[in-house]
Amino acid sequence: MSANDIENLVKTLIVGDQEDQLRLDAFLVRHFSKHSRVRLQKAISKGRVTVDGQTSKASTRLKQGQSVVCQPVPEPQQGPVAEDIPLDIIYEDESLVAINKPANMVVHPAKGHWSGTLTAGLAFHFESLSSIGGPTRPGIVHRLDRDTTGVILVAKTDQAHTHLSEQFQNRTVEKEYLAIVTPEPNRDQDIIEKPIGEHPYQREKKAIREIDHRSAKNATSVFTVLERMNGFALVSVKPKTGRTHQIRVHMAHVGSPVLCDKLYSGRSRLTHHELLRNDDPTILLDRQALHARRIGFEHPVSGKKMELEADLRQDMEATLALLRTRNG
């Protein structure tokens, strides 16, 4: 019995004399040996198994001659389901592709985010992607947070994936992010060298930790203020390491968290009313104002120095325009 046949399979079984008084789940394990007891118990709980036409519990003791009809729960999808999602392609050749990722897009499937992912869009638009990341992450060399926009590299071949991964590991990839922060930093430029590790009580967050903490990893970011706007600032941030939430944690640490970063700033959105003190409730921004603007790397085949840039998304552009008007 092939796993690919499970979804449409309905099998009728008769309890034999050697199976009298077996629990229902144990009985199913005997007949569906390639599938786990947990999966079969799930089929029972979902009503996909009947005994003499009646749904039953996993602990039900069977009697010789009873009829058991079973349609097991389908195996979970191993790879992304291709979806016709528009992709903003910055660059493409035979080895790699660079995408300007929009906000509210998870890079690869995860709990709570099975559809609408970047990998789903990639699976639709490209016939061949590298396999090194596994079936759920075809082509994915690095990642961006769901609400961080900007340039992300995708490998089409395993050779390109390996070469690009080595560059990330060796920290030779140059990355620049743009962020709107508030309040303004008290310096025009600074180097933040603070280890990042697990948050002491919020699983979804990261935190500055002492270097001897079991989860701490060295992290370095360099920021430069590009523009000040009466309590807000546009900053360029160049991370020298690649820790989860690094820029968000570091900017919050120096007292200038990324605007609308619900995890680290205490604010999840910005409206015209809040910014201009008028009666317009229109939401201006409802995600962290962080954009991967530029990435520099060595082409995995030609060895040529590459530098790719992604334009700011409309919500950050509109926010900056209004901040500048307000500042004026």
Secondary structure blueprint with pairings:
Blueprint: E1 11-14, H1 24-31, H2 37-45, E2 49-51, E3 54-55, E4 67-70, E5 89-92, E6 96-101, H3 118-125, E7 149-155, H4 158-169, E8 174-181, E9 189-193, E10 196-198, E11 206-208, E12 220-228, E13 233-239, H5 246-253, E14 270-271, H6 272-276, E15 283-285, E16 290-298, E17 305-309, H7 314-327
Parallel strand pairs: 7-16
Antiparallel strand pairs: 1-4, 2-3, 2-4, 5-6, 6-7, 8-13, 8-16, 9-12, 10-11, 12-13, 14-15, 16-17
Helix pairs in contact: 1-2
Overview features:
alpha+beta; 20% helix; Pseudouridine synthase; 7 helices; Structural Genomics Hypothetical 15.5 Kd Protein In mrcA-pckA Intergenic Region, Chain A; elongated; nine-stranded mixed β-sheet; disordered N terminus; four-stranded antiparallel β-sheet; 328 residues
Question: Any overview of this molecule?
Answer:
This protein is of the alpha+beta class and 328 residues long. The protein has three domains: 3-70, RNA-binding S4 domain (Structural Genomics Hypothetical 15.5 Kd Protein In mrcA-pckA Intergenic Region, Chain A), CATH 3.10.290; 77-170, Pseudouridine synthase; 171-328, Pseudouridine synthase, CATH 3.30.2350.10. The protein is built from seven helices and 17 strands. It has helices at residues 24-31, 37-45, 118-125, 158-169, 246-253, 272-276, 314-327; strands at 11-14, 49-51, 54-55, 67-70, 89-92, 96-101, 149-155, 174-181, 189-193, 196-198, 206-208, 220-228, 233-239, 270-271, 283-285, 290-298, 305-309. Strands 5, 6, 7, 8, 9, 12, 13, 16 and 17 form a nine-stranded mixed β-sheet that branches. A four-stranded antiparallel β-sheet has the order 1-4-2-3. A two-stranded antiparallel ribbon has the order 10-11. Helix 1 (24-31) packs across helix 2. The termini are far apart.
